[in-house]
Amino acid sequence: MNGSHGHKSCIVIGAGGVGVITAYSLFKAQKCQVSLIVRSDYDHVVQEGYNIDSCDYGAVKEWKPHYAYRNTQDAAAGDRFFDYIVVTTKNIPDGAAENTVSQVIRPLVESNARIDSTRVTCVVLVQNGIDIEKELQEEFDHPLALVSGVQLIASTKLAPGIVHQKGKDHLIVGAFDAMDAHAVAGAREFVEMYRNEGQNHVEFDASTRFTRWKKLLYNAAINTTTALVELDVPRCLEFAQGSLGTEHTLFRPAMQEIVAIAASEGITLGEQLIDFFVEITRNLVYKPSMCVDHEKGQLMEIEVIVGNPLRIAQRNGVPTPTLNVIYTLIKMLQSKTKEAQGLLKFDEKTARLAQ
């Protein structure tokens, strides 16, 4: 490894469309060593690399990260200290226990502590949802600098080693806790390591909680609804036309409830943001992530997007009639997928969930 890559080491977990572009952006900027956890495509990637068709970087042929691993156990087996653990997988705490973020990163956190217990590990969660850092605060005794990443990007893995990025990468990075000096410094350094001038967009986020609540307006109200009915947003709006319609019975009331919950936490989201999300999605024939996940038979990020805000609402005494209905319906849908995956069992003799 030559010195031009600097001494920092980053490991990206999640080699889907988003994770591969995240890893490539770090690699291209040449300010750190890049490791990637490549589960299903491992053999293919080690031999052939990735072919990336990117709106930011053009056609990239046979790209390989500095290091590739099958899983975090393999990565943790060596003597490499990972300064940054970057998580780009879906955040599904209600899924299989071994796939929760804390369980996936545990081997790396523990090997870092073994290699050098004085150095702080930065964990960058490039994931949706609110309060997603809490799980890590509760699970680990080791000091972690927890960094929030909110990414807007449209990138898909089409086949083993084939990635198509059609929407520009826009990443905002900041400390979950603005008082945590390590996390603030880590976030600022990550911005510098990630930046490819004139190609991608990355900025420091001084107010990560505001950013996350803002994105929840869209995710908790619109993303969820599209999954429930398996439709893109314009169809959701057009198919239930009438005096009330989807916009006024579902989208706006649910978003107003998110505004109220955020306000109970001291975060002010203006009413104009509701108009912004309704208008920006009205003309975009595009199925949001939850809808796509559900149609693929995959679990959705329902707890971090709807469950956590509702738990805050309950704690703070904020009424949420619309979100309660959305959550109940989407939980049923999630359980249907879990039953298909064998994650839960329903006993038809007793007509109850089997414990």
TrEMBL record:
GO terms for cellular component: cytoplasm. Residues 211-334 form the Ketopantoate reductase C-terminal domain. InterPro entries: 6-PGluconate_DH-like_C_sf, 6PGD_dom2, ApbA, KPA_reductase, KPR-Related, KPR_N, NAD(P)-bd_dom_sf. Residues 11-177 form the Ketopantoate reductase N-terminal domain. Keywords: NADP, Oxidoreductase. Pfam families: ApbA, ApbA_C. GO terms for molecular function: 2-dehydropantoate 2-reductase activity. GO terms for biological process: pantothenate biosynthetic process. Belongs to the ketopantoate reductase family. This is LAMI_0F14070g1_1.
